Amino acid sequence: MNAARVKLFRLLCASAAIIMSAAALNFIVDPLQLFRPARLTPAAYSPDSRMQNAGLIRSQQYDTVFMGTSLAIHFRQSDIDRVLGGRSLKLTMTGSNSVEQCFVLAQALQRHPKRVIWQMDDWIFREASDIDSDIYLPANLYRKNIRGIAEYLFSGSMARESLWLLARSIQPLQPVTSRLTSELLFRFSLSDVDDINAPGPDFDVAANYNAKQAIAAFRRITDPAHSAYLAQDYDYDAMISHFELDAIPLIEKFPEVQFDIYFTPYSILQFVAMRDASPATLKIVYDFSVYAARRLTEFANVRLFDFRAAQEVTHDLNNYSDVIHHSPAVDLRILRWLAAGDYRVTRDAPVAQLDRLKAQVEAYSTEGIER
Predict the structure, then answer these.
(1) N or C of the chain: less Cβ packing under 10 Å?
(2) How many CB atoms lie within 10 A of CB 347?
């Protein structure tokens, strides 16, 4: 064997050793807690929900699953447990669609929880690609198949996280590592599962949620130059199709699970914006709401709530950062409404809450907030 071949052989052996060492490190540390709850190092969590949820489903103990979009991302599991009882697992994902949500829920339901709390709105049922074409959600990691495990174990970036978790577990290094650990540098920056995507103690609620910001958002989306945004992804046929293909089969497959589904309390300005700048979109919202309410109330294992007509919240613009995202204080009110059974949609009156919303939208005056 000549010198060149010897060098190449050594290079290949060294490369293989590095790769196998990284895989062994990732398996032992298991930063995502995909194989087991954290043991060697303290548990750490990432705010990247689409990735982190795969590990949470495997490592956490829960009897309640909480699903939703950015409209539910700031809830704390401790608040859910305190107000509603049980032991919850928050799996909310910013900007998620029904394909993603139902896939993740199906994985979580394999652990046999008793209850699903599902923040639902018409927008999640927009047209979306199949789960294996979703570049943001690592489906094989959830499935824990060969491909998913290989991508996890042989990931260089994950090995970097594993090394950092080991460094953070060494007592003399903790003062330094705690200062350097941040979301900008490392994925697994959180030490408490309750803190995943929840506002920190220094979060200024009043500065982020106020009428000024809500009104500014209303003016922006009703501006003729931007009002096309209101109709984006609102296709009635596509919404009905995804509702029937994604949500309904999941509910039917798990009749022993209680599904508490709620329509989130958008500010009144969201619907008024549609009324004034995109009435066709508002009709789609209303028509879909009628269909979904009648369909969901057919199931004995579904309790449906419609908070969109909760005027004490939706008309107080200080609760919002734009026309749809509500403050953490409203999170707690939603939990209390669920606990009390307020704003429930019943089979004998499936559109009663929607009719209240329609009346509010029709009567609402924008005098004083328009340009």
Answers:
(1) C
(2) 14
CA separation for the pair 249, 156 (Å, rounded):
38
> CA quadruple 157, 133, 74, 58: dihedral positive or negative?
negative
Residue 318 makes CB contacts below 8 A (sequence gap 6+) with 206, 209, 210, 211, 214
Q: Which two tokens stand for residue 275?
A: 């009324």
Question: How far is Cα 129 from Cα 132, in angstroms, rounded to an integer?
Answer: 8
Task: Band the pLDDT of 16: cuts 50, 70, 90.
Answer: low
Phi first, then psi: give them for residue 369, nearest 5 degrees. Answer: -115, -10
pTM of the shown model:
0.91
Rounded to whole angstroms, the Cα distance separating 93 from 217 reads 22
Q: How far apart are CA 260 and CA 97, in angstroms?
A: 18
- CA distances from residue 111 to 87, 107, 114 in whole angstroms, order as listed: 13, 8, 10
Strands 302-306 and 344-345: antiparallel
Determine contact, residues 297/347, Cβ cutoff 8 Å: yes
CB count within 10 Å of CB 293 equals 21
pLDDT at position 262, please? 98
Name the DSSP letter for residue 63. Answer: S
3-state secondary structure of 261: strand
